[in-house]
Write a structure and sequence with these properties.
mainly alpha, 4 helices
Amino acid sequence: MPEDQAQIPPPITPPPSATPPAGAPTPPPNPESQARTWNMLCHLSALAACIGVPFGNILGPLLIWQIKKNEFPAVEIHGKAALNFQITVTIAVLGGAIVAFALSFVCVGFLLFPVVMLIGLAGMIFAIIAGLKANNGEDYKYPYSFEFVK
């Protein structure tokens, strides 16, 4: 073989992919995984209030609970727990804000506004904790939650 002709290497073929062909059916989703996801969303949907949805902390859990409670029995438990806690937090925050506003006219209420904000922040933190526990398949009991929905 003459030296002026370079040898052409053989073409490189890509390794076979692990993805199924385009026409292959996808496996059915795991029902337990779906239930865990909906349980988690019951709790985390309360964070809708953080993006400006009025009473989103109540509407989020209420909607998910009502839509999915018949399909996944565990959503019944998590939805009620999330809804009851968010109603409790809303009453505490709104009531505290009203009291703080009324007392601000006698120069005491300004000390209560940070407490009211901490209650709202605690409500968000507990919702995140409950969502993570629900995603792990665990039940979570919210602290200081009244049972409005039975």
